[in-house]
Design goal:
Blueprint (H helix, E strand, L loop, with lengths): L1 H9 L6 E6 L7 E5 L2 E8 H9 L16 E7 L6 H16 L46 E3 L2 E3 L5 H9 L10
Antiparallel strand pairs: 1-4, 2-3, 3-4, 5-6
Length: 176
Protein backbone atom coordinates (compact mmCIF):
# COMPACT_ATOMS: atom_id res chain seq x y z
CA UNK A 1 0.00 0.00 0.00
CA UNK A 2 2.85 2.40 0.79
CA UNK A 3 4.42 1.66 -2.61
CA UNK A 4 1.15 2.53 -4.40
CA UNK A 5 0.91 5.81 -2.50
CA UNK A 6 4.50 6.71 -3.35
CA UNK A 7 3.94 5.87 -7.02
CA UNK A 8 0.91 8.17 -7.20
CA UNK A 9 2.88 11.02 -5.59
CA UNK A 10 5.69 10.67 -8.12
CA UNK A 11 3.28 10.59 -11.07
CA UNK A 12 3.08 13.81 -13.08
CA UNK A 13 -0.19 15.73 -12.78
CA UNK A 14 -2.70 15.28 -15.60
CA UNK A 15 -5.87 17.00 -16.73
CA UNK A 16 -9.06 15.38 -15.45
CA UNK A 17 -10.50 15.56 -18.97
CA UNK A 18 -9.18 16.95 -22.26
CA UNK A 19 -10.66 17.30 -25.73
CA UNK A 20 -8.34 17.71 -28.72
CA UNK A 21 -9.74 18.27 -32.20
CA UNK A 22 -8.16 19.46 -35.44
CA UNK A 23 -8.91 23.17 -35.93
CA UNK A 24 -11.08 23.76 -38.97
CA UNK A 25 -12.15 27.34 -38.29
CA UNK A 26 -8.95 29.14 -39.24
CA UNK A 27 -9.57 31.70 -36.50
CA UNK A 28 -6.70 33.47 -34.80
CA UNK A 29 -4.65 31.45 -32.31
CA UNK A 30 -5.56 31.97 -28.67
CA UNK A 31 -4.35 30.27 -25.50
CA UNK A 32 -5.91 30.86 -22.09
CA UNK A 33 -5.62 29.35 -18.64
CA UNK A 34 -8.00 30.32 -15.89
CA UNK A 35 -8.58 28.49 -12.63
CA UNK A 36 -9.07 24.83 -13.46
CA UNK A 37 -9.48 25.28 -17.24
CA UNK A 38 -7.06 25.44 -20.15
CA UNK A 39 -8.18 26.34 -23.66
CA UNK A 40 -6.17 26.70 -26.84
CA UNK A 41 -7.69 27.38 -30.25
CA UNK A 42 -5.93 27.16 -33.62
CA UNK A 43 -2.68 26.23 -31.88
CA UNK A 44 0.10 24.05 -33.25
CA UNK A 45 2.12 21.63 -31.18
CA UNK A 46 5.11 23.98 -31.35
CA UNK A 47 3.62 26.72 -29.16
CA UNK A 48 2.35 24.05 -26.74
CA UNK A 49 5.85 22.57 -26.44
CA UNK A 50 7.32 26.03 -25.86
CA UNK A 51 4.77 26.65 -23.10
CA UNK A 52 4.95 23.19 -21.52
CA UNK A 53 8.74 23.11 -21.28
CA UNK A 54 9.30 26.85 -20.78
CA UNK A 55 11.77 27.07 -23.68
CA UNK A 56 12.11 29.33 -26.71
CA UNK A 57 11.98 28.21 -30.33
CA UNK A 58 15.77 28.40 -30.73
CA UNK A 59 16.13 25.66 -28.09
CA UNK A 60 14.20 23.11 -30.16
CA UNK A 61 15.71 21.18 -33.06
CA UNK A 62 14.59 18.52 -35.50
CA UNK A 63 10.87 19.10 -35.13
CA UNK A 64 9.84 21.60 -37.80
CA UNK A 65 6.69 19.56 -38.42
CA UNK A 66 5.24 20.45 -34.99
CA UNK A 67 4.59 23.99 -36.20
CA UNK A 68 2.19 22.86 -38.95
CA UNK A 69 -1.11 21.22 -37.93
CA UNK A 70 -3.45 23.25 -35.73
CA UNK A 71 -5.70 22.03 -32.93
CA UNK A 72 -8.46 23.17 -30.59
CA UNK A 73 -7.85 21.98 -27.02
CA UNK A 74 -10.21 22.28 -24.08
CA UNK A 75 -8.98 20.74 -20.82
CA UNK A 76 -10.12 20.75 -17.20
CA UNK A 77 -8.09 19.97 -14.09
CA UNK A 78 -9.44 18.59 -10.83
CA UNK A 79 -8.50 21.84 -9.09
CA UNK A 80 -7.14 25.33 -9.71
CA UNK A 81 -3.73 25.13 -11.47
CA UNK A 82 -0.58 27.07 -10.74
CA UNK A 83 1.60 27.85 -13.77
CA UNK A 84 4.23 25.20 -12.90
CA UNK A 85 1.51 22.58 -12.54
CA UNK A 86 -0.09 23.65 -15.83
CA UNK A 87 3.25 23.11 -17.57
CA UNK A 88 3.50 19.60 -16.11
CA UNK A 89 -0.07 18.84 -17.19
CA UNK A 90 0.70 20.05 -20.72
CA UNK A 91 3.81 17.84 -20.78
CA UNK A 92 1.67 14.84 -19.80
CA UNK A 93 -0.96 15.73 -22.41
CA UNK A 94 1.66 16.05 -25.17
CA UNK A 95 3.24 12.71 -24.23
CA UNK A 96 -0.08 10.88 -23.94
CA UNK A 97 -2.05 12.25 -26.88
CA UNK A 98 0.71 13.15 -29.34
CA UNK A 99 3.36 10.61 -28.22
CA UNK A 100 5.87 13.42 -27.77
CA UNK A 101 9.24 12.29 -26.45
CA UNK A 102 11.73 14.84 -25.19
CA UNK A 103 15.50 14.55 -25.26
CA UNK A 104 17.55 17.21 -23.45
CA UNK A 105 21.10 18.03 -24.48
CA UNK A 106 23.57 20.87 -24.08
CA UNK A 107 24.96 22.60 -27.17
CA UNK A 108 27.30 25.49 -27.77
CA UNK A 109 25.63 28.21 -29.82
CA UNK A 110 26.62 31.71 -30.98
CA UNK A 111 25.87 34.48 -28.49
CA UNK A 112 25.99 38.23 -28.13
CA UNK A 113 28.43 40.02 -25.97
CA UNK A 114 26.98 43.40 -25.00
CA UNK A 115 29.73 45.70 -23.84
CA UNK A 116 30.11 49.42 -23.28
CA UNK A 117 31.96 51.06 -26.16
CA UNK A 118 35.21 52.97 -25.67
CA UNK A 119 34.38 56.44 -24.39
CA UNK A 120 31.27 55.26 -22.54
CA UNK A 121 27.72 54.45 -23.57
CA UNK A 122 26.46 55.97 -26.79
CA UNK A 123 22.76 55.62 -25.91
CA UNK A 124 20.80 58.83 -26.10
CA UNK A 125 17.20 59.49 -25.19
CA UNK A 126 15.10 59.75 -28.33
CA UNK A 127 13.60 63.12 -29.16
CA UNK A 128 10.54 61.23 -30.42
CA UNK A 129 7.56 61.39 -28.02
CA UNK A 130 7.09 58.19 -25.97
CA UNK A 131 3.55 57.75 -27.26
CA UNK A 132 4.94 57.67 -30.83
CA UNK A 133 7.25 54.70 -30.14
CA UNK A 134 5.73 51.42 -31.37
CA UNK A 135 4.69 49.13 -28.50
CA UNK A 136 3.83 46.02 -30.52
CA UNK A 137 6.98 43.97 -30.82
CA UNK A 138 7.38 42.97 -34.46
CA UNK A 139 10.20 42.96 -36.93
CA UNK A 140 8.83 46.30 -38.15
CA UNK A 141 8.80 47.94 -34.70
CA UNK A 142 12.26 46.67 -33.79
CA UNK A 143 13.84 48.12 -36.90
CA UNK A 144 17.55 47.71 -36.43
CA UNK A 145 19.89 47.98 -39.39
CA UNK A 146 23.33 46.54 -39.98
CA UNK A 147 26.17 49.06 -39.97
CA UNK A 148 29.93 48.52 -40.50
CA UNK A 149 30.46 48.74 -36.74
CA UNK A 150 27.47 46.63 -35.62
CA UNK A 151 23.74 47.15 -35.43
CA UNK A 152 22.00 50.52 -35.16
CA UNK A 153 18.57 51.09 -33.60
CA UNK A 154 16.84 54.46 -33.72
CA UNK A 155 13.74 55.56 -31.80
CA UNK A 156 13.29 52.12 -30.20
CA UNK A 157 12.31 51.24 -26.68
CA UNK A 158 14.78 49.11 -24.72
CA UNK A 159 12.05 46.43 -24.60
CA UNK A 160 11.84 46.30 -28.40
CA UNK A 161 15.63 46.31 -28.68
CA UNK A 162 15.95 43.37 -26.25
CA UNK A 163 13.12 41.55 -28.06
CA UNK A 164 14.89 41.93 -31.41
CA UNK A 165 18.14 40.56 -30.01
CA UNK A 166 16.37 37.62 -28.38
CA UNK A 167 14.75 36.73 -31.70
CA UNK A 168 18.12 36.49 -33.43
CA UNK A 169 17.44 39.22 -35.97
CA UNK A 170 21.16 39.82 -36.20
CA UNK A 171 23.02 36.57 -35.76
CA UNK A 172 26.51 37.93 -35.37
CA UNK A 173 28.24 35.88 -32.64
CA UNK A 174 30.55 37.45 -30.07
CA UNK A 175 33.98 38.10 -31.52
CA UNK A 176 32.54 37.68 -35.07
Amino acid sequence: MLMAAMASIAQAPVFEVASIKPDTTGRRMSVESSGDRFTAFDVGLGPLVLMAYDVNVRQISGVDHIFGDRYDIVAKAEHRMRSAELRQMLQSLLADRFKLQVHWETREVPEYSLTIAKGGPKLRHSDRPDDDIPRVQTTESAGGRETPSGVSYTHESMGDFAWALSRGMHRRPAGG
